[in-house]
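#structure-requests
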Amino acid sequence: MKRLIICAILLTACATPAPAPASTVTPPPTPTRALTASPVPTLAPTATNVTRTSTPSHAPTASLTSSNKILFTSKRDGRSQIYVMNADGSGQTNLSRNDSNDLSPSWSPNNKQIVFNTSEGLFVMNADGSGRKRLAEGSSPTWLPLRGIAFVFPGDTGSVMYVMNSDGSGQSMLWKQDIYNGQSGSPKWNREGTRAVFGTYRNGNVDVYRLNTDGSDLKRLTFHAGLDLEPTWSPDGKRIAFVSDRDDSGDIYVMNADGSNLIRLTDDSADDHAPAWSADGKKIVFTTNRDGNNEIYMMDADGKNQRNLTNNAADDTYPNWQPIP
């Protein structure tokens, strides 16, 4: 049952189908290099010992500086809108302020723009919510450092990853790979923009994989029968936080970038998901329904000092922490 709940949450928020492009749109050029996935080895790895953190306290921690903003999606206005708040949970402000459903917000590397997904396609707006502009068809937008905006576009045999400039121009295929068959979510890039991590269904299971941005060196990082997905890089690129239901409920785990040293950060009967690192790598925010509805929580990077930031009766989901420019 928990696995079904996790799948339903992720499918709703991350796999919003994109409408077919208009006939007048010229498709992006064929890339010079496409990804051909190597078969995943069937040899099971040696058993991995999972380190569990101590039972987390819920005592408040010292407030971070108010310049560290966190984006999130909230339904407190009757529809999904993009909100921003300070890192201590104060100053929660609606940036969308419209009648559409806005999802999957992501900061630009310089913190000046926000890209997001709607039923009408991909949009960008300024950090204060002004200058809202439609960019393209597609879904699951993320900023690819030094390249622009990466996004998903449905192809004939699977989904295709494209990249474009921040104004929507210069669309080109980044790599093609059927990674979006259900429970994958958006790929997350390291700070240098050289590697991506994502969760995908392969060989009968959902696991975390790593991939170079040019489509080379596909590597499987998790080998458990449970669902492992929604991975995201730490700012220094040494660790990866992700979600797993290997212990029945959805919890947040962290591991080294090569898949070693697995540590469980949350340990409760609720579903915890959508982790995002602070710019200094010392904190992690995530979504949890432990209070009866989805809220944004923050904890130390070792799982301690977990506390509710949003404290709202409506669902608040999918935080995205402001990076260091």
